[in-house]
What we know:
The chain is built from five helices and seven strands; from the N terminus they run αβαβαββαβαββ.
Amino acid sequence: MNALEIVRRAVGEHLSPGDFAIDATAGRGYDTAMLARITGEKGRVLAFDIQPEAVDSTRALLEREGLCAEVVLASHADMAKYASPDSASVILFNLGYLPGGDHSVYTRAESTIAAVTAGLDILKRGGLMCVTIYSGGANGYAERDALIPFFASLDDKKYQVLSLSFHNWKKDPPLPFFIIKN
Ligand SMILES: C[S@@+](CC[C@H](N)C(=O)[O-])C[C@H]1O[C@@H](n2cnc3c(N)ncnc32)[C@H](O)[C@@H]1O
């Protein structure tokens, strides 16, 4: 089982038709489409990316699949402008750079921490935030090294924070974090 499959299973347990979900890093749109498939016509999916190429890819995938989502060309750090507190059942972050795109554009610790902080306010009680950290490629280790202590600092009365370790990977395993709002 890879990180993506594990995240998708967790999402499947927290998301139902009619719910509201956010994809904080739209990329090629695969996660946005997965969320839209579950939430259905009565639900709402909001997706963010700072690259026009990613927004275009995501919109094209949604159209091909006959799915509906709002795809916004904006930083996820601004998500509070688009969603109200305690409204989202699931928020996903798949960090790093756009596959097949410009590897010099990637998620950065400062805006990711701002976005996770905003997202935790938007998340419903019982809702799930998944943040998968990819490090060691063109993006290096700075984001991972800032996020790990940040997640450890979250109030344990308000949030349960779990991480998944690919323990025998020799180099740069993906690092999924799961945050549940109590
Ligand atoms: C690993 S990709 C996401 C993959 C995507 N979830 C999919 O299913 O294809 C990471 C994406 O984050 C985007 N990104 C980087 N900084 C961002 C920011 N501040 N706000 C929103 N998206 C950002 C990149 O442009 C890139 O497309």
